[in-house]
Each structure stands twice: as C-alpha cells, then as structure tokens.
From TrEMBL:
PROSITE patterns: MOAA_NIFB_PQQE. It comes from Micromonospora purpureochromogenes. Residues 154-182 are annotated as: Disordered. Residues 17-144 form the Radical SAM core domain. Transmembrane segments: none annotated. Residues 173-182 have a biased composition (Pro residues). Keywords: 4Fe-4S, Iron, Iron-sulfur, Metal-binding, Oxidoreductase, S-adenosyl-L-methionine. Residues 162-172 have a biased composition (Low complexity). This is MoaA/NifB/PqqE/SkfB family radical SAM enzyme.
Length: 182
C-alpha cells in the first residue's frame, strides 16, 4: 500500500488532553513540577473537541487524557457522549479521587467503554506517598461506588469496564523527587 505524503491517512485512534489541570502531585509526574492549572483554564473547550471529531471521520478509538486528571474537565461528559454517539470506543485513565457515586452513575449512564484507575500501591502508606494529595480509603470507596453503579444497570446496557493499574510489589514508598523532602 502506498501512502500519498501530501495526503496521509488520518489516524483511527486519538489521545486528547482534555485538561491540563490535576488535583494531585504524584512523585513520578511532570505535573508536580509546574504551577497548578485552573480546571477551566486548563480544559479543552467543547468547540475544539467537536471540530476534531468532525475532522477525523474514520476515528474508531479515543483516549481522553494526558497529564491532567480528566474528571476535572467540566466538559468530560459532553465529550464522552459525543464520542459514544459517533460509535467511537472511548475511555480514559483517572486517579479516581474525584469519582464520586454521582459521577460514577453518570459515567455508567454515558456508556463510556473503559476506565483505567491508577493505583500505585496495595495499601494506603505506599499509595499516598506516591500519589501526593490522594486518600487511599476514598479511592477504594469511589471504586466500590463505580462497581455498584455498574451493577445497578441492566446487563448489556453499560459497557464501562473498570480496570486498575496497581503495583502490589511496592512495599516501600517511592523515593522523593530530586530536590524534594527527604
């Protein structure tokens, strides 16, 4: 198959930074080293999102996150619903600290396809040392709320598939960042 370099094919998968704002300062993340960003100022506006959707007609998969926390975007649900309406597989990674029961129900109702949750430890000590500003018990409760919301929907109606990225091998906290406390 030859590709016309003047008119290359558009990608079937996009990863969009829907917000550059984050509510945590994780030890491994670049966000830690920049000034905090306001959730409105850091959010991709819906008009840009809809223009991107229209400009990539063959889009089949969309990941709505980058360095920011997607649940901080005031436009996230609109974006998810627009992607789902187009038949695009859509999901995002989250730290789940803002995944309230109401937000979980809204996500399940939106028919988001997947949700990855970052857990950097099997217990509160390690997790909270890595995810500065997070509360392990709250995240676990938020995930239980998501599971409850998903189970409350008739079978086959909610495709949301919660997945975790946990590192149970971390028995001790990660070292502090260079120049940080330690």
């Amino acid at each position: 198959m030859s590709v016309d370099i003047d008119d290359p094919p558009l990608p079937p998968h996009l990863q969009l930074e829907v917000t550059s704002a984050c509510n945590l300062r994780c030890v491994m993340c670049l966000v830690r080293y920049r000034p905090p960003v306001n959730k409105l100022a850091g959010a991709m506006r819906p008009d840009l999102f809809h223009r991107l959707l229209a400009a990539v007609p063959a889009l089949s998969r969309m990941t709505l996150q980058g360095l920011g926390e997607p649940l901080l975007s005031p436009y996230l649900m609109e974006m998810v619903r627009a992607a789902v309406a187009r038949g695009i597989t859509v999901g995002f990674n989250t730290n789940a600290t803002l995944l309230t029961r109401g937000r979980a129900e809204e996500l399940v109702d939106s028919r988001v396809d997947w949700l990855h949750v970052s857990l950097d430890g099997a217990g509160a000590g390690v997790y909270e040392a890595v995810r500065e500003g997070a509360d392990f018990a709250r995240v676990v409760a938020n995930l239980a709320g998501l599971v409850h919301a998903k189970r409350a929907v008739p079978a086959g109606r909610s495709p949301v598939s919660p997945r975790g990225a946990a590192d149970p091998t971390r028995a001790t906290p990660a070292p502090p960042p260079p120049g940080g406390p330690g």
